[in-house]
Amino acid sequence: MREEKNRGGRAWRAPPQEKNGKGGGNKQKPTPARVQQMMTRLGLTFEEVKDPRARRGRRHLLGAMLMLLVQALAVGRRVLRHAEALGEDMLREGSAPEGLKRAVSDTTLDRLLSRLEPEGLEQTLHQSVKRGLEKGLIRHDHFARGIATFDGKAGEKYAGAGAMRAVPHDEG
User: pTM to 2 decimals?
Assistant: First the structure.
């Protein structure tokens, strides 16, 4: 830490400066564009997911809205209002998910999520994760704590840690 002086002349310790990502071990933050590229490489399209909405009045494609939600979660926007704002920004920049032609309101996203069944969605995500593991795009050690497996098997608890361990899909 380096020492600096504030306006009043008092010394304080400045936090270490972040490295620029070259050899510093600093991970790049996910951006919507990077997430979109990753989803494309994984072949994530959400085509198998059953659309719970009525045929009349569909303004947005289901896959485009789900892509927007995945991108929002990946970049840390956990509130639907923030996902809506991300969609508006992406539309303005021309980087919105394919099929998203207008802004999607947080209310629309909320209604969609409340009606969405896991059928199709679970299979799509399972296949994408499996494909990512096979291609080396996803590593097992990057799974969040609490995720045990993607093949339906229960994980094992570490002694005293209380967390589930990530189990490769071919372990048995």
Answer: 0.64
